[in-house]
């Protein structure tokens, strides 16, 4: 707000001076200098310039600057570095050519050096951005670690739900995730907002997320970074995350079903913790035996229900009489549902 006020004041002064110069020019053209109409010209144009400066300066200066800053934030640091180095190298290479071309007859001697500089500068930017990986390798591995790596399958964006969930901490310890886990600043802000919520449940979830993020930074085998890259033209966090993933060309790690579907519709790769958990559940085939502790009755008469260590529900026909005890059962069929996998079984017949 303070910056906008200063810009308005500076714009008011500038446009007032511009109005004064314009009034003076018109006064000289019309021969009205040193007359009452000339004074009116001066006052009218100064006031009009001041009003125009106060109203138009944010649109003429601040809005373009903010738009440009937002675009820059979306560009990975490696691309920016490669582009700047490419531009510098291209301009240096163009110097001898521009000097030689300056001896051409007018107007070619003035135009061709500029064209040469633009051509070599653009070529330098294009070449170094394309060969960015090789450039980072030459600069050194340490520098490349400090700058977010070029978005690829080895980098992954974390969303709010997967941080609060907490299972990512154990997964990161296994080494299955390679590269860098990226946490955008707006995800961190959302966690802080949830942690400050007046609702007790939301507040506890937010604090759990912040604690989990702190644990990841201290204990994770995989590098984790807080990145300031943002998408300012999108307000909701999920939209920002999907757009950033598309820009960086890296997957999103989540357990949010809706975000999963929205991201897939936009061509963004998603790593879903829940799908991973379901894939890692033990596989039982009809006819195999297992031991289960029955906890409660099922929906149908006579059924008993228990759960495996991974949370898979086991429905045992004629198992009601065994509730509260562990028994051996034989799998009859396995049903895969949206909520997960269900196993149906019956008590194993005791061999005489």
Question: What would your notes on this structure say?
Answer:
The protein has 13 helices and 10 strands. The strands form 2 sheets. A 5-stranded parallel β-sheet has the order 3-2-1-4-5. It has 352 residues and is of the alpha/beta class. The N and C termini lie far apart (86 Å). The protein is 58% helix and 16% strand. It folds into 4 domains: 2-74, no CATH class; 77-144, no CATH class; 155-278, Rossmann fold; 289-347, Nucleic acid-binding proteins (OB fold (Dihydrolipoamide Acetyltransferase, E2P), Beta Barrel). Strand 9 and strand 10 (340-347) form a beta hairpin. It has helices spanning 2-30, 36-74, 77-101, 108-130, 132-139, 141-146, 160-165, 167-174, 185-195, 200-219, 237-248, 257-265, 273-279, and strands at 155-158, 180-184, 224-227, 252-254, 270-272, 289-297, 304-307, 313-316, 326-337, 340-347. Mean pLDDT is 81; it is low at 140-153.
> How many distinct helices?
13
Query: What is the CATH fold-level name of the largest domain?
Result: Rossmann fold
Q: How many domains is the backbone divided into? A: 4
Which CATH C-level class of the largest domain is it?
A: Alpha Beta
Number of DSSP E strands? 10
**At CATH's second level, what is the architecture of the largest domain?**
3-Layer(aba) Sandwich
Give the biggest sheet.
5 strands, parallel
Choose one word for the global shape.
elongated
Structure class: alpha/beta
Cα-based radius of gyration, to the nearest Å:
33 Å
What would the average pLDDT be, to the nearest integer? 81
- Identify the strand order in the major beta sheet: 3-2-1-4-5
Order of helices and strands: HHHHHHEHHEHHEHEHEHEEEEE
The N- to C-terminal Cα distance equals: 86 Å
Extract low-pLDDT stretches: 140-153
Beta-strand content bin: 15-25%
